[in-house]
Amino acid sequence: MTAPGHPSAAALLSVALEAAGAAVELVHRDRPSTLQIATKSTATDLVTEMDRAAEGLIRSIIAAARPADRFVGEESASDEDDTSGTDRTGVTWWVDPIDGTTNYVYDHPGYAVSIAAAVDGEVVAGVVADPTHGRTYRATLGGGARCSETMGGKSTDRRLELAAPPPLDHALVATGFAYDGDRRRAQGQILTGVLPRVRDIRRMGAAALDLCSVASGRVDAYYEAGLSMWDFAAGALVATEAGARVGGIDGGPVRPGSVLAAHPVLFDQMVSLLAELGA
Fold first, then answer.
1. Domain range summary for the chain, segments of one domain joined by +
2. Which pLDDT does position 182 carry in this prediction?
3. What is the CATH number of domain 168-276?
4. DSSP annotation of 169
5. 278 — alpha (psi -120 to 50), left (phi > 0) or beta?
6. Is the pTM of this model over 0.85?
7. CATH number, domain 9-159, options 3.40.718.10, 3.90.1200.10, 3.30.540.10, 3.30.379.10
8. What count of other Cβ atoms lies within 10 Å of the Cβ of residue 157?
């Protein structure tokens, strides 16, 4: 629910769905045969002209519907203060136009358009659109999470609800890595401690989709350090509304730089394991 005077979560979700649909059309169906690729924080941190074009398209759709809202997009904001819009409405949009750009560059399945709307700092609506698998995840605060899927001409729409999890040693765990070499080395060392304690590890390369994989039961847990708000805002809401517990790696609140999502039964076990390994 949103406070009196604020737009409803359903209304914000409608805008997010429109923007995500247009961005998917642009980046997936209208993908150019050759991409213009540049780097950002490191030589492995990639950005393409399609990231920027998609963000511009999303911004224009949101601005047309809600011109006074604050907009924070990965490609146009060097930090959270470099934004458009104002705080008059209390609404902030967190946008990652292509979450998983490296996958996109390699034409590897596993990238998504991620859009979240927060009211007075609390995320109330989120959309994660996965074009290569024909899935769109969506959620509103207190309204549950759903996934629509189109495959082979058949469309389905289902509510996402976590089933009882396996024990930790049978859990399939997803994670991701930073772009900085030293941090990646440390994350790899932690991973060698996690691997023999769980069923297996998955590294998909898109935080929003990892969180939606928890929500849909494709993995049992997910953790990652070094993320920004636009990476996880929408996916974290989808996972939470599906019944997952989403917090920091240390068990505290979820925050930029520290995300852990799992069924509540597994969450504390993952916190303990990661703390034991120095994560």
1. 9-159, 168-276
2. 87
3. 3.40.190.80
4. G
5. left
6. yes
7. 3.30.540.10
8. 11
